[in-house]
């Protein structure tokens, strides 16, 4: 039986850890070659680098490229690295940080800009670089942008994060409108509480500051538990595959039902 992404090549940013690693693992299991693009090669929670893990556990080709998503040329190089595997078919703009967790009135401009450069500018540059390559290849493509449930709702003490993630959602709608004529689909995904280094980091910052994850106890989630990076990966596999050939300009919550209930 053929896998869903046989013969495809994906570039995944932030692929060293967490959601990016889970997405990369699911892509490899479905037959896609993977360019794991990240500022660091090591998984933030330890363990084998993603590309080594994929090559050990699956039959696909995988490689690491150093990439800082705040730098347009760095993203262009990461997209170019897919040529070794036949050219890019899927771009997953996943890299992101939680950023400052404090009341709006205490957020400094530098920390606000720092968050926006990674979480929003990085998605903009990554989508532009991938779309240019896909158009030049004259082949259909799929771009999946990582947002958050915070891109639908305002969470306290997370104004920069929520602003960027809402921006990713609307950016993806507009990019889908521009790129549909070229056969390039663009969608955003919106996880809730997913077990990654970012969520542990967030939990650890107990402080008195509510945050995206600490604000959402598992008991408030209809499915009663946090999600895993592989469950995020399942949705990205769907959006990348031909099963979603008529899906573009869509935003999908992956939050165990949290946002739209209660
Ligand atoms: P994580 O910290 O486990 O992984 C993030 C990865 O991004 C790391 O490997 C890191 O090195 C990389 N990265 C950071 N800055 C980068 C840069 N400038 N250039 C390239 N790579 C960079 O975090 P995660 O939870 O896996 O988060 C991944 C994405 O998922 C983020 O966009 C985050 O906002 C989103 N998200 C996470 C959750 C959650 O609960 N964990 C919920 C909703 C959305």
From TrEMBL:
One of its GO terms (molecular function) is oxidoreductase activity. The keyword ATP-binding does not apply. It holds the Pfam family adh_short_C2. InterPro entries: NAD(P)-bd_dom_sf, Sc_DH/Rdtase_CS, SDR_fam. Residues 205-220 have a biased composition (Low complexity). Keywords: Oxidoreductase. CDD domains: SDR_c (cd05233). Residues 198-228 are annotated as: Disordered. PROSITE patterns: ADH_SHORT. Signal peptide: none annotated. Belongs to the short-chain dehydrogenases/reductases (SDR) family. NCBIfam families: PRK07231.1. This is SDR family oxidoreductase. It comes from Halococcus dombrowskii.
């Amino acid at each position: 039986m053929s896998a869903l992404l046989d013969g495809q090549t994906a570039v995944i940013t932030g692929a060293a850890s967490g959601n990016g690693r889970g997405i990369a693992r699911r892509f490899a299991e479905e037959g896609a070659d993977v360019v794991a693009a990240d500022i660091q090669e090591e998984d933030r929670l330890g363990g084998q680098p993603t590309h080594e893990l994929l090559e050990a556990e699956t039959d696909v080709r995988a490689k690491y490229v150093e990439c800082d998503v705040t730098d347009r040329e760095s993203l262009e190089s990461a997209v170019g690295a897919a040529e070794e595997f036949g050219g890019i078919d899927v771009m997953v703009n996943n890299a992101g940080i939680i950023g400052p967790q404090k009341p709006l009135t205490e957020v400094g401009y530098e920390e606000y800009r720092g968050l926006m450069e990674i979480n929003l500018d990085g998605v903009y540059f990554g989508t532009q670089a991938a779309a240019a390559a896909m158009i030049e290849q004259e082949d259909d493509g799929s771009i999946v942008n990582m947002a958050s449930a915070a891109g639908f709702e305002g969470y306290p003490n997370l104004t920069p994060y929520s602003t960027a993630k809402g921006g990713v959602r609307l950016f993806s709608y507009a990019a889908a409108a521009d790129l549909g004529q070229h056969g390039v689909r663009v969608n955003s995904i919106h996880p809730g509480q997913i077990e990654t280094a970012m969520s542990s980091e967030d939990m650890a910052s107990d402080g008195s500051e509510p945050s995206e994850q600490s604000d959402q106890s598992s008991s408030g989630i209809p499915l009663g538990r946090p999600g895993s990076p592989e469950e995020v990966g399942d949705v990205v596999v769907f959006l990348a595959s031909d099963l979603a050939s008529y899906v573009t300009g869509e935003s999908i919550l992956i939050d165990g039902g949290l946002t739209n209930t209660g």
